[in-house]
Amino acid sequence: MCTVCGCGGHSVEDQFRAHLAKQGQAPAAPLAVLAPHPAPKPTAPKTPAPAPAPVDGSHAACTHDLHFGQGPAGTEVPGMTQARLIEIETDILSKNNSFAARNRAALAALKAFSVNLVSSPGSGKTTLLCATIRALGAQPLAVIEGDQQTSNDADRIRETGAAAVQVNTGKGCHLDGNMVEQALARLDLGAGALLFIENVGNLVCPAAFDLGEDAKVAILSVTEGEDKPLKYPDMFAASRLAILNKIDLAPFCDVNLDTYEANLKRVNPEIEVIRVSARTGEGMELWLDWLRRGLAAKAA
Amino acid sequence: MHEMSIAEGIRTVLEDAAKANDFSKITRVRLEIGAFAGVERAALDFAFEVVMRGSVAEGAALEILDLPGRALCYDCAVEVEITDRLAPCPHCGGGRLLVQGGDEMRIKDLEVL
After folding, report:
1. What residues does Zn(2+) bind to (chain B) (predicted)?
2. Angle, alpha carbons B37-B38-B40 (nearest 5°)
3. Which single residue of A112, A279, A291, B94 could bond B75 by disulfide (Cβ 3.0 to 4.6 Å)?
4. What are the pLDDT digits (tens) for A149-177?
């Protein structure tokens, strides 16, 4: 049988016969043909024939010669598959985005300002948060703490008197919209509150998952190296603000803070940068002002 | 390994589409992935095969269509196509580019039975 269009007989012999005909040879002996086959092509002489050879009628409609070398055989054969094509044009993370949209609407209704704090582990997120909470005093706020394991961070936040929910992702490398929705349900967030979502320490995956926050804030400590924005550009590109933390350690780390900032701007020309030391309090006022401006914008 | 989460996102969308469009098997899935979507192709291939087991898309072929990265150059104010986030502007060589597109992650279409 012809393997492209299915015409002709069904046996290997048929194919061999067709092959011989193509080569201009007749079968030396009768073959054991298992299925009836149209009359074989006349044997073509080695020298050009004066008259064109009659066309094998069974192949009249088969133009498979034209298909050689074009794509895998069989894919263009009608009737081979009942497959139909369905256009769906759906965002892969649409489920996550719908959770994020619900969170965003709930926070907007409260006129609450929410930030998604993203960084590598050990950049000082929790220390910065504790210092921020103490400095903000009576400002209503709550914290969602994301980690793979332990409630250490939520415990540290609760010591400041703030409400905190620990979300342990288990094996997960990031928080997602659903986790934040469930955490929000456990927090009694008041109108005009600040919500801090401390993501899992990871400079890669949290960039892709919208939680419904107003802004991503990337925290980068001076001990990490000036090239981190270049090495992990997605995270810094997705962030509105970068906090350059632990600047009290800069003199001991042989780093240039201007290089940090230049690299951040190279990845994201619109990113705002605040230099902070959560330990000494340097720069904290700029960060607090940034938060208050965010809150004021939500209240407007 | 957020490709695993992405594959789970794909599975959710596919299972919903199977209910809505009444089909029982998916033989091919075509995705559109932007250059800056942060998706590693090999990791997604692996995650897709594993996550689709037992679903309507078990054994389905995964095809990924690349979408270009687009950025606005702050120096010459032209929208350009770039291949990586840190590439200079192909027009003026400037280094200050604001990414405008290329973070897409979409399921374009499905071949179903």
Report:
1. 73, 76, 89, 92
2. 115
3. B94
4. 999 999 999 999 999 999 999 888 899 99
ipTM of the complex: 0.83
Contact A265 B74 (CB under 8 A): no
Contact A88 B109 (CB under 8 A): yes
Across the A/B interface, how many CB contacts are shorter than 8 Å? Answer: 98
Contact call for residues A224 and A250 (beta carbons, < 8 A): no
Q: Residue A223 above 50 pLDDT?
A: yes
Q: What is the pTM of this model?
A: 0.75
Tokens coding B110: 């499905």
Verify whether the Cβ–Cβ distance B98 to A270 is below 8 Å.
yes
Residues 6+ apart with CB under 8 A from A292: none
Work out the minimum CA distance from B20 to partner chain A, whole angstroms: 11
Q: Could you say which of B12, B27, B38 has the minimum Cβ distance to residue A208?
A: B38
pLDDT band at A82 (very low <50, low <70, confident <90, very high): low
> In chain B, positions 43-102, which contact chain A (CB-CB < 8 Å)?
74, 85-86, 95-99
Chain A residues with at least one Cβ partner in B under 8 Å: 81-96, 172-174, 176, 204-205, 207-209, 230, 233-234, 237, 265-270
User: How many distinct helices (H) and strands (E) make up chain A?
Assistant: 9, 8
Contact A269 B98 (CB under 8 A): yes
The strands making up A194-198's β-sheet, listed across from edge to edge, are A163-168, A141-147, A194-198, A113-119, A215-221, A241-245, A272-275
> H or E element: which one contains A296?
helix A284-299
Q: From the annotation, which residues of B make up the binding site?
A: 2, 73, 76, 89, 92
Instruction: Work out whether the CA dihedral A90, A94, A97, A101 comes out positive or negative.
Output: positive
Contact in structure between A279 and A248 (CB atoms under 8 Å): yes
* Domains (range + CATH), chain A: 1-84 (no CATH), 96-299 (3.40.50.300)
Is domain B2-112 in CATH 3.30.2320.80, yes or no? yes
Confidence of residue A67 (pLDDT cuts 50, 70, 90): very low
Give B44 to chain A, closest Cα distance, Å: 12
Q: Rounded distance, CA A184 to CA A109, Å?
A: 13
DSSP string over A179-222:
HHHHHHHTS-PPTT-EEEEE--S-SSGGGG---S-SEEEEEEEG
Residue spans of the domains in chain B: they are 2-112
Give the closest of A86, A173, A265 to B112, CB-based. A86
